[in-house]
Amino acid sequence: MTAPARPPIPPGMSRSGDGHxxxxxxxxxxADPPLEAVRTHGSRIVLADGRELVDGIASWWTAVHxxxxxxxxxxxxxxxxxxxxxxxxxxxxxxxxxxxxxLAGMLPGDLSRVFFTDSGSVxxxxxxxxxxxxxxxxxxxxxxxxxxxxxxxxGDTMGAMSVCDPEEGMHRRFGAYLPSQIFCELPxxxxxxxxxxxxxxxxxxxxxxxxxEPLVQGAGGMLTHPPEVLARIARLARxxxxxxxxxxxxxxxxxxxxxxxxxxxxxxxxxLCLSKALTGGTLPLAAxxxxxxxxxxxxxxDPAAALxxxxxxxxxxxxxxxANASLDLFEREPRLAQAAAISRRLADGLAPLRGRPGIAxxxxxxxxxxxxxxxxxDLARMKRALVARGVWVRPFGDVLYLTPALTVSEPDLxxxxxxxxxxxxxxxxxx
Length: 431
Ligand SMILES: *Cc1c(COP(=O)(O)O)cnc(C)c1O
Hints:
The chain is of the alpha/beta class. The chain contains 13 helices and 16 strands. A 7-stranded mixed beta sheet has the order 4-12-11-10-7-5-6, with helices on both faces. The chain has a 4-stranded mixed beta sheet with strand order 1-2-3-15. A 3-stranded antiparallel beta sheet has the order 13-14-16.
């Protein structure tokens, strides 16, 4: 067989997009070509043509300390010299041991057993697998389904997709591949609470766990809910004897104003997933953290009771070193105070959009500010216009949002707000 011909560069695509890369979530035939980034600093992305964009979304919510923080860079350099990677099966190393101990110390309750992976989706897969195997290890079979919530997003792999909002495009198209799960509305009032209780009761013998993104459903549209809703879910899960999985992949590490969103509801889940900001936006790393009680179901003389999972690059030392350095920064620098200041600025700055025709809602929670339009706007036009004004964002569906670095400077945050408000006004008028 001959090698396939090198694909031609599609018309309008930049050389940097090159015709070989397959891009994420993009209809490449019609989308604008990607911008070529060459450098980053602070909250800024420098493009190959010399332009500089203020990043309003911290590289998909990861770069909480801004880009190129010298403390993280130094820790990574030191680890790079000593040991960039070593397999984790049968071996251990200080960066992972330290990181696991520190995460256990920071997380509420007895969340204390840390399983490292390399992406958020896989952290969710591991959580689902833990829940399913938990029941098998207890000698109970048939409990494999998960109760999840409408509006949720938990990742792109098959298991994670199966617990994403069932009306979302991806879910609908891949339905035949996905395990079938149970979906409920978030229990925002007595009626939805009763519906959740009823679903948990009627599915009792098939359910393995409940999963939810605490306080804000991120990729589902920056949909916020008050801590009482989360507390209600935790109470019902407990009453029905089901482990609660919190997906804090987006909310973890200060985004909602507390280090972890679950703190605001005063609850401790049985399993918690972390990723996005774990390494301060430098390297891929994720963690699935379980309580002692969950872990104890896997602690056995039976080899088959062990957790059957082990990604090749799990607990990569370089990524763990970056994560440890990121945790140092949470200890040494006032990140939560910065998140609170950003929250106030977002609330003030976005206030002029509230109640405007064409604007359905403005939501601010912690360092997240979201503008929801009454009708889906022209996303490409909006992005282009914002790039022309020096702003990098990634609106989706009917939502334009800001989730800047917690270290964003005042002038950069002002620029983000000023341009987002201007464009949102213009879009709302044309819609
Ligand atoms: C981003 C995200 C995921 C998936 O993480 P990946 O690293 O992209 O696989 C899962 N859950 C939530 C809440 C997320 O925001």
